[in-house]
Amino acid sequence: MKYRSTRSNETVSAEEALVKGLADDGGLYVPDFLPEPFLDAQALLNLSYEELAAFVLSHFLTDIPDGEIRKLTHNAYTGTFETSEIVPVKTLSESFSMAEMFHGRTCAFKDLALSLFPYLLVYAKKQEKDDREILILTATSGDTGKAALEGFRDVPGVHIMVFYPSHGVSPLQKDQMQKQLGNNVKVVGIEGNFDDAQGTLKQVFNSSLRKEEAEKGVLFSSANSINIGRLLPQVVYYVWIWLKLLKSGSIGPREEFNVVVPTGNFGNILAAWIARKIGTPIGQLVCASNENKVLSDFFETGTYDVNREFYMTEAPSMDILVSSNFERFLYFLTDSTDEVKADMEALRNTGKYEVSREALKKADLEMMGGWASPEAMRKAMTDVYEKYDYLMDPHTAVAYAVYDKLRRTGKITRHTHTVIISTAHPYKFPGVVAKALGLDEKESPYDTLREIEKATGIAIPQQLGELEQKEKRFTDTVERKDMAETIRAYADTIIK
Ligand SMILES: *Cc1c(COP(=O)(O)O)cnc(C)c1O
Fold first, then answer.
1. Where do the domains of the chain lie?
2. Within 6 Å (CB) of ligand 1, which residues are found?
């Protein structure tokens, strides 16, 4: 299988797409075709997570021998999650389950892809016979940064630099990044939001700086979900969730299930959509947004419009207006690189674009949008804890609140089991969780966590608890306009 750009006919191998991240024309790489459905539940039912991952990925990474893929997924998913189930699925009622994606090294769903991506990248680089150093440039809204730092820490030949919005992440998320260990890592706060960070990095990828550094021996790549190495591993867990539901009897052999995804950059839900294309029986697929509801509005109107206020919410990983991966969905909707290119240009110049009536109709057949206010999010946290004794993080709560609204209004089929994608451990967000439980927020987030632990009996994950005693290593913040120079300065230090 080859990978092609969403904006032109540029086509490359999987290895090249992994190493480059973004296409030369600024577009995103997508599989040049989507495989016909190939999933046979009976044959897959007893595979381990790493075996299933190897099986699914072998259909997308056809140039990599199966034995190699198995080695890569084995390394990625051995000893990196606190449960061998990797993604446990908790059925809370006949109507719905929670797919818990927060049992990895950094307590967020990003760990699922970022445990594997470094292995894919190192393999691809070897195949490309390129012995230059790689510098991974990453923009984060809070969780990608830490998961990428852990994934790439001390990987030979690779360096990583992370930019996070210095006022837009939770104190725990900030500590996770500022206290990161490793000799090949650099973390920088920016005065701006995620869109600023991601937008500037995309410019850097298309700038002369990238060429200059490549000549000096440093290749820029990306660990954001614009890289296919992030997207493909995410397809796996939707197949896994299906098999788990079958095994637990939450759904029958020929039954579908609905999926609700708390969405930011549109990577996770795009993976769900691909999983459905290859044969996972996903019924309704719901794209849940918080107050930054560009996507929810798109599904209603067919216009993608970022000319609006940006809200900093308590579900910060969803505080995004320009959802990069939506470009891939747009490509599949319109089946036209010219149109995607024109729309992306319009987005850059005017902050909006509109798709045709047919494209919108197609979009509505594939997915459904919805959004939840901060009040609805908090109420969902409280209600679900009281009713099901289950504590959700704010992002998961947004998804639940959207699900609840759709169910009440009859927009989601009641007789179909629904899976809420639970994207982060609630303890990454102590302040809002304490409020939802009616507890006082303490000055130190770790004191707050101990209060929550006392009240709920849910133990503090070691990865979060141990942060309290660690030293801050990275406290720099820069202006958006200085990001490129900051990158140049760091890149120059790693030239061999
Ligand atoms: C990244 C993230 C999201 C958004 O996922 P996308 O793939 O960017 O849409 C939602 N919740 C949490 C906790 C996240 O870290």
1. 89-104+229-428, 430-460
2. 108, 110, 143, 225, 262-268, 317-318, 395, 423-424
CA 60 to chain centre: 19
| Chain segment 165-191, per-residue pLDDT in tens | 999 999 999 999 999 999 999 999 999
To the nearest 5 percent, what fractions of the chain are helix, strand and coil? Answer: 50, 15, 35
Nearest CA to ligand 1 atom 2: 317
In 3D, which of 42, 21, 23, 32 has the Cα closest to residue 63? Answer: 32
- Rounded to 10°, the helix 357-366/294-301 angle is 120
| Residue of 225, 317, 319, 427 to mutate, ligand 1, most atoms within 8 A of C-beta | 317
Q: What is the DSSP letter of 471?
A: P
Please give the C-alpha separations between residue 229 and each of 129, 177, 214, in angstroms, as whole numbers. 18, 22, 21
Whole-angstrom distance, CA of residue 219 vs CA of residue 240: 34
DSSP reduced 3-state for 435: helix
Q: Say how far apart CA 451 and CA 460 lie, in whole Å.
A: 11
Name the token pair of 227. 């890289």
CATH for 89-104+229-428?
A: 3.40.50.1100
Decide: 339 and 356 in contact? Cβ < 8 Å: no
Helix, strand or coil for residue 190? strand
Whole-prediction pTM value?
Answer: 0.96
Helix (H) or strand (E) run with residue 243 in it:
helix 228-248
Exposed/middle/buried for residue 437 (C-beta within 10 Å: 0-12, 13-18, 19+): middle
Mean residue pLDDT across the chain: 96
Q: Which residues contact 322 (CB under 8 A, 6 or more apart)?
A: 195, 198, 199, 306, 347
Antiparallel, parallel or unpaired: β 96-100 and 89-91: antiparallel
| 496 pLDDT higher than 90 | no
* Alpha-carbon span 241 to 44, nearest angstrom: 12
Dist. CA 118–CA 124, nearest whole Å: 10
Percent of the chain at pLDDT > 70 equals 100
Q: DSSP for 97-108, please give it.
A: EEEE---STTSB
How many whole angstroms separate alpha carbon 232 and alpha carbon 214?
26
